[in-house]
Amino acid sequence: MRSILVFLALQVLIGCNSSTKNTVETHKFTNDLISESSPYLLQHAHNPVHWKAWNEATLQQAKKEKKLMVVSIGYAACHWCHVMEHESFEDSTVAAVMNQHYISVKVDREERPDVDQTYINAVQLMTGSAGWPLNVVTLPDGRPVWGGTYFRKNDWINALEQIQEVYKSEPEKLIAYANRLEEGIKSMDLIELKTEAVNFKNFPVAEIVSKWSNQFDERNGGFKGAPKFMMPNNLEFLLRQAVSEKDDELLAYVTLSLDKMAFGGLYDQIGGGFARYSTDEKWHVPHFEKMLYDNAQLVTLYSNAFSVTQNLLYKDVVEETLNFIAREMTNSEGGFYSSLDADSQNEKGALEEGAFYVFTSEELRRLLKDDFEIFKEYYNVNSFGHWEKDNYVLIRKKTDAEIEREFELTSEVFQQKKKSWKETLRAYRNQRPKPRLDDKTLTSWNALMLKGYTDAYKVFGKEAYLNSAIKNAKFIAEKQLQENGALFHNHKDGKSSINGFLEDYAFTIEAFIALYQTTLDEQWLHLSKKMTEYAIDNFFDSEKQMFYFTSKKDPAIVSRNFEYRDNVIPASNSSMAKNLFLLSKYFEDTSFEAISQQMLKNVSTEIMQYPSGFSNWLDLLLNLKNDFYEVVIIGEDVDEKVKNINKHYLPNKIIAGSREENNGPLFQNRFVPNETLFYVCKNNTCKLPIKDPKIAIESLNKNE
């Protein structure tokens, strides 16, 4: 991030001078961002730079004035974004250069993932790497010609002045490079229609996982190297594969990863919830920002892992994480906020990464008194847990049982001590300045959290989880979903202004299907179908049989691309393919299944080469490789039967239920008065109705 990225095509030589002391003038300036709702954009509203938001008026101004644009992209919880703002964008000298020669545009990558992905691809092509802050210079038409990530003040000024000089004296060089780069961007994330047959039944999943295992960190869990990201979708698939194949070794690796993540400083041992990633291999020191999308997916993962293992650690993680979400990340409408910043004010009033979360040994000794020696051993207030200066990031190495034996404590006494420690330290640190909250709500991330709550309710049966899920689903349905099936992407201060992206549809459909399988309220299933039909009409490329990330109703930024590789968040295309598979079962719609299978065929070759980037696709593939069931439950006791079956880890099925006679495709001629019956079906063939849920569950476990 700190390295200076060079514009190779123009051979602009940028010096490596260290940053000089800036004269910062705060709140003496106001720019166009003051009218925006994004907290990240509002953070820059008083910079001396004449920032503008990304919109049609800004783009037209650049074309009219024939000015180059600086497009600077980040997000509210981004530490290095704050550093560059302080060093450069708050500096009047930097602002003078930018204001004289450029139209400067600030973009919240979370609000505009389409803009972000276009310029991420461009910088990736130019430099070989990309990240945030992302800073790009473009022609007046938005086509990029230069870019990088974090720049020191002098390097930034030098680069902008030299690029402007080239634009003034030899603009044809920039235009020629923009043309070549445009072709490169258009070639990225493209997909070819695969017409040859693929035998999913014989797909070598076990061999793929075996080769993939070379990347597994068998000591610390997760994947080798640092920084270390949690990659919940990778672990979700590997959990399913381990259970499906009764692979104890693979299951041990998955549970090791979950244990180490939960023991690590990456997990907020006092307040619950996970930070975005660990800077080291042992999950100790996090990059302290907390993102909604990570915690949402991890709630699902730890809930599913508990249903497999019954490990109480996983239950604690889910409970504490959802308490954190309810306490700090939920608004009065049931919507979920986006993130908490990595930085907060230290004792001197300066922004410092992690200041809110860390403790000194002296603080802990004073607060915990007689319990300090036990706490010290449990949370490693020693060389293992030391971070920097006198600060410790709490990290565990021992289980509760080991500590109880070491200090001769009963489980009841030790659990009460833990509860008291956390309450004491949470109250203490809440007196500190809190990290800044990004209080916008994003439909896609809200849907991930909605599914997290739903999955937690399935496993643990806590009514508060279901209530939060339903409240959020109603928020999305009433505030973000339009009558024609279209979604908005963002919501803040009562306004939704950005058209939805494919991720909004994919994750909302998935969450609503999960909510239907829990509540049996058919409105969620029918809304899922409605959104799917809208997505097919407005995002689907019938030639390539994949979905574009942006709607055909929105102008392309350089190009319209397909997002199909899974990352920290699953790809919107892989999630859509899974949704289509499930909806094809619910509505007996063969066209949905045909699209789903063709999408999977399109990526099948890449799956073999790069499984970690296709774990959500692999999860779909298991639906086709192994037996997949429709479980239909009809009768007056259906609610209890559904609760019972949902507690079990059974990823190879859908559930449909009705309390009374129902004309839906899965229910016809199956209602029997005064009976509650299970119908377990596979490949359009059903077994005889079953009364005992244990027998139904056993039949689902035979093949997976």
From TrEMBL:
<dbReference type="InterPro" id="IPR008928">
    <property type="entry name" value="6-hairpin_glycosidase_sf"/>
</dbReference>
<dbReference type="InterPro" id="IPR024705">
    <property type="entry name" value="Ssp411"/>
</dbReference>
<dbReference type="InterPro" id="IPR004879">
    <property type="entry name" value="Ssp411-like_TRX"/>
</dbReference>
<dbReference type="InterPro" id="IPR036249">
    <property type="entry name" value="Thioredoxin-like_sf"/>
</dbReference>
<dbReference type="Pfam" id="PF03190">
    <property type="entry name" value="Thioredox_DsbH"/>
</dbReference>
<protein>
    <submittedName>
        <fullName>Thioredoxin</fullName>
    </submittedName>
</protein>
<feature type="domain" description="Spermatogenesis-associated protein 20-like TRX">
    <location>
        <begin position="30"/>
        <end position="184"/>
    </location>
</feature>
<dbReference type="InterPro" id="IPR012341">
    <property type="entry name" value="6hp_glycosidase-like_sf"/>
</dbReference>
